């Protein structure tokens, strides 16, 4: 294992996933430097890290060893940036404001299953919703998952009771790989009665988590887990969510990340659809009624149609500050290298790459050889 | 009866309501001049009118007499522009493109009931939907009507089976006046089994129609009737509409007229909600789940919030050509009289008044004494 992979693994065992302080430190430092600080090997100029990290890291080699043993027993592998199969889209999380105190790309993921996460998530959709769904919600979740799987989309969800489980089962029924993102260790069967489902998912698809092997789910962990579901996919559909449902949190993440946000309506007389209707009403999500609608919305994301759609000022306002600056540093006709953009836009060398990549995904910038140009869509004048 | 009122009444008996040719002739001519042409009294410079009008007008005095007798027997009165109680909002129909071959403000309306139509329609909402509604649709229509009536809105609908009837009954239950707009004569009980309901509606509210007394409903008349429902109200809600439902036609009218367009969702598994969902998905309507939502949307129409909302270019594109020209004839700082605007904007004296009134309703122009100014919201630069 390379030293960076080791450093990431070690660091993931002392920092609660989604801690925004980690994201901020990683802007300027390599994981190895933070691990060194956690180990208490403060050299001159080394960063200060939160006390809690140092406490958790007091016998870090042993903690790493335990996690590895547990991972081996559970059939998990460590996947992190730089690895084949690492989904680059997760770095979008480094550019969004915290929600409920969590943000940032994960240091890595523990993975159960042999499939390639980057390949599976390349064309994927999140289907999430109420644990206590009605039979209507369960039926819609299965149908939607079946149609999306049939259209070649990987269904990604949280393996919970209700809508999540039905979505995974719909994909499994179609013989399509599906990805479950857990709020506990990827070796834990949670909920317990979904043990067989999780084993089945890991056969053709993947069970993943940023929590260390053996970790139990906790309330905050469901919320930080949701950001991964939103970031891994190109769009999120919510089916049945009461007013304060956690799946609305996944929708907010998708919204912040510029992914397609969708909601499947239900009877207005059903409490389980109130959160979905509120999101649709507030313009936080687009109404979908079928897999066909979902695919249509997702295809709308393609570069072609994005090129034609004018950029609204609100889209610009919703870009993270670094991407806004990078946009200002680009020109219509004269391609600029990333480092030139960094100089013009007053961005650090570490900031400019991800910012340009984000602009490219949103069809606001395009790569010409080793240079970057502003795309036509970015004309907000 | 003034000669203009008489002319309008006579003309209404020879022209099929909504005939766009009438709207065009009325741009330059008084109703009296058209009646004279219909009577065959062609003087030099008098307009040509369609053959069918002349045929229907071959014994016009007698036709008028018959209609009046029938109206008297049915307890109907003739209400037309200039009368106390005439809803000025109907003239918005003179500025929209034909839908299914119909457009234009009605020459007048036959009215059953003593209430003031202008007063009732001042704060009103259309609730329309499927004749063959489900129990869910029926329940939602009643509930919504009850809530809207409770909030002080007059419920206006088409008195059909299903959603329409439930909407009227909800308002009646609340002791609130409601207005039924029929596609047949206002003295005809259609559907027959709604006779008691129509009588009840006429007690506190009104039963109105632009069809002459005694006229039977015909397919095209439902479509042209729908434009009146949309124009009389500040917003239209559709509850249950299959893909080609007539109530989607009412929604299109409301959309063309710049009224608030709303749709109440249902289960995606119900065929009766497919048209509503398609409208919501296509951005033709805003999702509402309750009377509270409806009132919120309708209040959003108020001048205050319109002043804050920026005008989108698409709003400008959707203005009728006369209003677009009038907008060009206005200034930010120097108030202009209607006739000055007419000169600058190359509009006729007859066109400029309604065009300015439309701009005022959409908060794009404001009246300062006898002059007109461009409002801040019209800044599309």
Could you characterize what this model shows?
The structure is a homodimer of 381-residue chains. Chain A is an alpha/beta fold and 381 residues long. Chain A has three domains: 3-72, no CATH class; 95-301, Rossmann fold (3-Layer(aba) Sandwich); 309-378, Winged helix-like DNA-binding domain superfamily/Winged helix DNA-binding domain (Arc Repressor Mutant, subunit A), CATH 1.10.10.10. The first copy, chain A, contains 18 helices and eleven strands. Chain A has helices at residues 3-12, 20-28, 31-38, 51-56, 60-74, 117-122, 135-150, 163-173, 195-204, 219-232, 246-256, 274-281, 291-299, 303-308, 313-317, 321-328, 338-345, 349-361, and strands at residues 76-79, 109-112, 124-129, 154-157, 178-181, 206-209, 235-239, 260-264, 286-287, 365-368, 371-374. A nine-stranded mixed sheet of chain A has the order 1-2-6-5-4-3-7-8-9, with helices on both faces. A two-stranded antiparallel ribbon of chain A has the order 10-11. Chain A is globular. The N and C termini of chain A lie far apart (50 Å). The model of chain A is unreliable at 301-314 (pLDDT under 50). The A-B interface holds A 136, 139-140, 264-269, 274, 277, 280-281, 286-290, 293 and B 136, 139-140, 264-269, 274, 277, 280-281, 286-290, 293.
């Amino acid at each position: 294992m390379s030293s960076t992979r080791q450093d990431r693994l070690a660091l993931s065992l002392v920092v609660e996933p989604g801690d925004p302080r980690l994201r901020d430190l990683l802007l300027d430092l390599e994981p190895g430097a933070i691990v060194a600080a956690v180990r208490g090997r403060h050299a001159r100029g080394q960063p200060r890290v939160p006390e809690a990290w140092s406490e958790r890291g007091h016998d870090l080699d042993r903690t790493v060893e335990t996690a590895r043993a547990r991972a081996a027993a559970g059939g998990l592998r460590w996947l992190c940036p730089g690895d084949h199969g690492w989904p680059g889209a997760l770095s979008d999380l480094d550019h969004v404001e915290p929600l409920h105190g969590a943000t940032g790309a994960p240091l890595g993921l523990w993975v159960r299953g042999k499939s390639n996460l980057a390949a599976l998530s390349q064309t994927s959709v999140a289907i999430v919703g109420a644990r206590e769904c009605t039979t209507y919600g369960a039926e819609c979740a299965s149908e939607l998952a079946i149609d999306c799987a049939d259209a070649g989309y990987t269904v990604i969800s949280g393996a919970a009771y209700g809508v999540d489980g039905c979505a995974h089962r719909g994909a499994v029924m179609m013989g399509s790989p599906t990805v479950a993102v857990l709020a506990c260790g990827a070796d834990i069967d949670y909920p317990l009665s979904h043990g067989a489902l999780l084993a089945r998912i890991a056969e053709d698809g993947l069970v993943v988590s940023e929590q260390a092997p053996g970790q139990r789910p906790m309330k905050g962990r469901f919320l930080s887990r949701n950001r991964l579901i939103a970031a891994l996919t190109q769009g999120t559909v919510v089916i049945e969510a009461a007013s304060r449902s956690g799946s609305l949190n996944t929708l907010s993440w998708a919204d912040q990340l510029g992914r397609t946000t969708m909601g499947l309506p239900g009877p207005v007389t059903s409490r389980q659809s109130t959160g979905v209707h509120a999101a649709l009403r507030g313009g936080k999500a687009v109404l979908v009624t079928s897999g066909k609608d979902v695919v249509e919305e997702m295809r709308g994301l393609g570069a072609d149609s994005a090129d034609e759609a004018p950029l609204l000022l609100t889209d610009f306002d919703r870009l993270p500050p670094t991407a806004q600056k990078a946009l200002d540093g680009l020109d219509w006709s004269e391609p600029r290298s990333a480092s030139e953009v960094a100089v013009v836009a007053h961005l650090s060398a570490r900031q400019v790459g991800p910012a340009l990549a984000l602009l490219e995904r949103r069809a606001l910038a395009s790569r010409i050889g080793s240079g970057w140009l502003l795309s036509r869509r970015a004309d907000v004048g």
